[in-house]
Every structure is written in structure tokens, then in C-alpha cells.
Amino acid sequence: MNRSTIAAIALTATAGLALTACGGAKPTPGDKQGANADAYAPVTVGKGFTTKGGNINVLMSSDFQTLDPGNSNYVQTANVGQLYYRTLVMAKETAGQPPKMVPDLATDLGKASKDGLTWTYTLKKGLKFEDGSPITSKDIKYGVERTYARDVYTQAPQELDSALADDSYKGPYHGGDFKGIDTPDDQTVVFHLKQPYAEFPALVSRSNTAPVPKAKDTKLDYTNHPLSSGPYKIKSYDRGRSMKLVRNSNWDPATDPNRSALPDTFTFSLSTAQATISQQLLANSDPTAITLDSNGGLQASDAAKLNDPKVKKRTAAGLLGCTDVLNLNTETIKDKDVRKAMALAIDRAAVQVQYGGARFGKIAQSYINPAQVGYVPQHTDLDPAGKPKLDEAKKLIKGKNVPKKLVYGYADTNARYKNVGTVLQQNLKQLGIDLQLRPIPAANYYTVLAGDQMPDIARSGWCGGADSGSVRTTIDPNVGPSLDGKTYGFSNIPRYHDAKIAKAMYELRGTNGTSEELGKKWATLYDQAMQDYPLVPLVRSYTSSVVGSKVRNAQMGYFFGAIDLSTVGAEH
């Protein structure tokens, strides 16, 4: 799942093929980074707290893009969404680890047919909306159907929809019967797939399956008060200013072991400047305060204050599943040796400094990591400490047609990304490349990257395995082929398409098996693709977030990149 817009969504790969692709390169180190490995251990504030009551005050610099589960591809909405909606399956967070799939509205993780083309879910008994009406299978189906109305919901999650066997459906407002889901009775939901999908429980953990009663659907106005199926409901919402959540009396905790629902209320301040958020949290001016802003709302100038023992004991932290990379446009930088030379020339340690240093992330060697299901050791010639290998880079491009000018595009709201471009300018100048920096409006950033104006180099981020822990959910979107396998996929920013690898990935999509078995095949193909250097891994995020002195059970969500709202509590 793209962190800046949001998580995600028969070939036998022999050892001989893998070795041929490796070309003698050195294996990627594991998840440890030398002596600093312990620095990336997860830290939870007030672990084990179980007392109900009190209030959590959430300080945010801006409002949520949307609260509508059917129109959300944003991690902040997914985080707060845990409080007021439930899905068939839940991606349950544990600090420092990929989430675990657990049943939520459903009794189990689903039952797959022998051919893998049908998944059946049974709803728990006693499920109700906030108004006391029962939650039925038809509400689940209608919630999914809304996400097909992409003329209305432009940010609707697409991973589940693309897996279901009905490409012609245009949503419930255009008529027609949706054939991707059957509801034989009020308790049963049956999904029909185009191809087997071993990680299907992860797809139904996405907000698509949050139940929506058809009679309460107000289309785009639904964001103002989505009907709650979770432990809290919206009492008041003044867009751009504030929101208050209170307990949903029709939520039955006996049906929901995943959410502790400790506080009585959550209040949200939606227009607090980030510098003010940072100051208030560090000063403990509000003992019940937290933030969902990225990097815990901390300003670069405040980083040293985390060493204060009084602040340190109030700081939740964790290594995320989110990694930033540079995408090298393979349509404009066509020679893989030139791309590899560029990768070798980049001072990734200097890039790490622009991210705030080792405190804010570790140098990454791959887009996938050893904690993901199906991971196999990857191979790279990049220096594990991130130092450039300029001599090797120059040898690679000797006699090559190296571009004289290239463009680096960056989101214009974050000085960090511009500063990364300055580092790249200095590095690539050593290869005779004049790199121009082009600011792109942040609101349109990923639209530009998917369109005709894609620059030669662009940064992006992905929370790998954040929805299922599977390597596929990183590999397929980022370097996989289109739905028909004939070109590069929608989220494949570098436009990478090797005919042989694409064919193998396309066939692998239709292969039945376990996530572990299939994941190893995906990871082996990914390793082969990376020898063509369509991507340059930069930094895997480590986030620290200071909380108020009365906040408890504050853990850093592996996927959310912020305090996990489903576990937090408050002394009172």
C-alpha cells in the first residue's frame, strides 16, 4: 500500500536460474544493521495497561482525507477506522512485526475451495450497527459494491476488486447485478475470484469489506458520519477542525477480541501546526495527547530532545514495514548497466542523513525484508552501509550512451525530498549526468508518476507486507505486470517490464499454493528483476512518537507509522 496516498495487494524457479541471475553478487544482509541492530527494537509505552475510561486527545496538523471506508487508501483513515468500522478479517498490529491476519466480523479467516477460486466467510452472531440494526452479509456485499463506483469514489481500494471475477460491474448506482459476491443467506459471504490468491484473507482485511447498509448510503456525504460497526461512533465532526468519538453501545466486545477499546472517548484536533504538536508532546503540556502525523510530528530540530530521559520514557518507537526507494524510469533510462551505475554512485548514507539520520530509519538493501512471508535472501552489489561505489559505477558506463541530463521529481511539501535531490545531483554529476530538480504538487504526486509526465527519477514509499506479511504484496504492485501480463502494472512506477520475468509473474498469479510456497517464488523472481536495477532502495522507516505521560499501551503500528489507536489507553 502506498504510504503517501494511503497499505497493498505455474512456474518453478530453480536454484540454477536464481544463481544465473545473481551473477556472483553478494547476498543482502539480514534485518540487523551492525552494532546498531538494537537501536531498531520496538518500544511500547505502558505495556500491559487494561483499565477502561478516560480520553485520548489526538493532535493532527490536517483533517483526514476521508472517513468513508469505501473511499480510503490512506493509512491515517485505516488507523482511526479501526475504532468505528470492522471488516471480515483484521490486520492486527504488533510493534516491529508484520500484522497478523485474525478473524473480525467473520468466524475464521475464510474457507477456500480446492481450486482456490472461491472463498467463503460466515459472519459471527450478534453483530449490530450503531443504530441497533443487524449486520448481514448483504451489508458486506454492498460495502464492496460501492468501491466499484470509481466515478464517485476516486480513492477506493482496488486490490480486492481486481481479484474478483466481475470486471464489468460499475457500482451500485449504475444498475446491474454484481457477480463477484454471493450472499446465500444473511450470515454467509461467498467471493468468486479470477485466479487463486493465497493471501486472500489480507484482501478482505481492507476497508472494502466494512459493512454499509444500502439505506444509509449518502454517497460522498457518507464521510461525515459512516455508520459504526466498531466500538466507537462519531458524536461530532467539524471538518478541518475537530472530531469526537464516543462509545458505541451496540458494539458487543464478546464478538471482538481484537480491540481493547479502553478510552471512553477520543477527541481529535485537526488543525494544529506540526511545530506546535512537537512542542506540546515534548513538553507534556497535555498528558493524554498523541499524534498520528508522520514521524510523530517531530521537527528535525527536536530530534536531540528524544535523548532526555523524561522524554525517552514517553516515546513509543518501532521499525515499520515502510521503505522508500528511488524509481528509475526504465522507459527513459533504458540501459540496465547505466541504471546500476547510477545506483552504485548514489550516497545512500547521505540520503539517510536527509531523513534525519539513523534514528529515523535504517539503510535498506531491498524493498522486501526478512520478516515477510516467503522471503528468500536477495542479492545486490550496493554497499550495506550505503556508501557509494564510484569506481565500479564508472567502469560500468565506460563506452555507454549515458544521458547528459535527467530530471528528479519530488513532492513539494517536504523539504526532505528536495534535499535528497541535492544529494543525487552531486552523486550523478560524477557520472557526467546533470540532474535537474522538479517540484511536483504533493496532492498530484502519484498521479504524475503514473502519467505521461513521469520524471526520470522519482521517490516513492511502500509499506511492504503491511497487510498480510507476504512478499507478494510488495513485489507484484511495484515491479509486476499489468492485469493481462502484457505491459507494466498500474503501481509499477519505474515501468519495469522484462518479458520473461513478467510472463513468470503473470503465471504465478494463477498458481495455487500456500503464501510461503508462492512467496519464495515471488521473491526469487524479484531478485532476478532487481539485477536490472529499476529501483534503488533507500531507507526503511523507524518512527519515534512521543506521547503524554498518562497514555498507555502506546505501540508504533508497523503499517500505520503512528500510534495504533486500537490498543491505546489512558490513566484517569
List the defining traits of the structure above.
six-stranded mixed beta sheet, about 20% strand, Dipeptide-binding Protein, domain 3, globular, D-Maltodextrin-Binding Protein, domain 2, five-stranded mixed beta sheet, about 575 residues, alpha+beta, 2 domains, 15 helices
Q: What is shown here, in short?
A:
One of its GO terms (biological process) is peptide transport. The chain is of the alpha+beta class and 572 residues long.
Note down, in words, how this protein is organized.
The chain is 23% helix and 20% strand. With 572 residues, it is of the alpha+beta class. It folds into 2 domains: 230 residues, Dipeptide-binding Protein, Domain 3 (Dipeptide-binding Protein, domain 3); 180 residues, D-Maltodextrin-Binding Protein, domain 2 (3-Layer(aba) Sandwich). The strands form 6 sheets. The protein has a 6-stranded mixed β-sheet with strand order 14-19-13-18-16-17. Strands 9-10-11-2-12 form a 5-stranded mixed β-sheet, with helices on one face. The N terminus is likely disordered.
